[in-house]
Amino acid sequence: MIPIRSGRRLIAAAALVLFLPASLALADSSIKRIHSTNFGIDQGEIEEIKAQMQAAVDGEFLNGALLLVGNSEGVGVLESVGLLSPENPRPVNQDSIFRIFSMTKPIVSVAIMTMVEDGLMALDDPVEKFIPEFADGQVMDRETGALRPVERAMTVENLLTHESGLIQAFFSPNSELGRLYGGELSGDFDNREFAARIGGLPLFFEPGTAWHYGHSTDVLGALLEVVDEKTLDVVLRERIFDPLGMDDTSFVVPRRKAYRIAEPIHGAMGDNTIPRRMLSGGGGLNSTTGDYVRFAEMLLNGGEYRGARIIEEATLDAMLEPKIGDTVSREFFFYGDAGDWGLGFHLQPTTDNPDGPHNFGWRGIGGTIFIIDPENDFYMIYMEQKRGGPQSPFNANAAQQVVYEAMRD
Fold this sequence. Notes:
Blueprint: H1 8-19, H2 22-25, H3 43-58, E1 64-71, E2 74-85, E3 88-91, E4 97-101, H4 104-117, E5 138-140, E6 147-149, H5 156-160, H6 176-184, H7 191-199, H8 216-228, H9 232-244, E7 285-288, H10 289-300, E8 304-305, E9 308-309, H11 313-319, E10 340-341, E11 346-349, E12 358-363, E13 369-373, E14 378-384, H12 396-408
Antiparallel strand pairs: 1-2, 1-14, 2-3, 4-7, 5-6, 8-9, 10-11, 11-12, 12-13, 13-14
């Protein structure tokens, strides 16, 4: 059961403002070095991993990359290679700023669960309760394009599990609805305008009956704004970033920090120093490894980071319960029959047993990934910037593989 703690966060936030800003309280580095053998990884294995990363840079697949492995005791692996860009020949390090794209989604999902704890919304609340445009939803028949009324209202939980019926043109380019999304959702919207626009469009399937990646977490970002009556950047700062001391995580990179931005060698990425009206809850954040360590360690530690409790352990446990049941189609699930999905996180088996144990986390389309492995007591963060171009010999998938192989040798 998810605990309801109405008012707890308001009191805690007031205490921080009145007595000690979180950024000062957590001004110490998030990265405390410990020996890699704490994770079963020896120096020879680290050198081999770094050589593989360097080969990807030398082959001009990447400008640079960083790999980190840590737990609540400290960081045992922190290896970086390459430069931020040819035009900015500074080395990649823990303070380099990356576009984390969909690694935004778990942050937004945790923020939603803090509101559930605070009694401001419930998982079974219909989305139309907060965004009226989602009332009177319709489902589009994939074969004929015919529309019919939904049989059940889309809920907050449906958004968290990607079982909402919302898709995204990029992930369904050949469908009629994907093409409709591509036209109707192009434009300069803020979060609430975007949610209102997508709320008036048909769904790809009946909510709760299938998994499909899409704009679900963008709508969650709008929900946060409606309920808190603040813009998403402020909501996340108050509920996540300030308590954790994530001072370098934002939707827009300040110009004074632009010299720390990592750039891709392949694939265009937008200028993340330019403000946008839409603060995408599905993929709009920029962050550093040093910042994301704080979020990852909080998750590994049951919802608390160095005395700052973000969510209760019971809430996090609820987020890690598998949600793709027997009645939910896996046709569009990225991992087919393997693994599952919780409330905002992937759940992937760490052994040959499909029932677990599982790690959890998510990745960004620009090459970043984080995983939390409670069974083996570690988290991993891998950062690069790449979108398109030739397949790199080292990437987010390879990072997971080499870390697990090194631990098991």
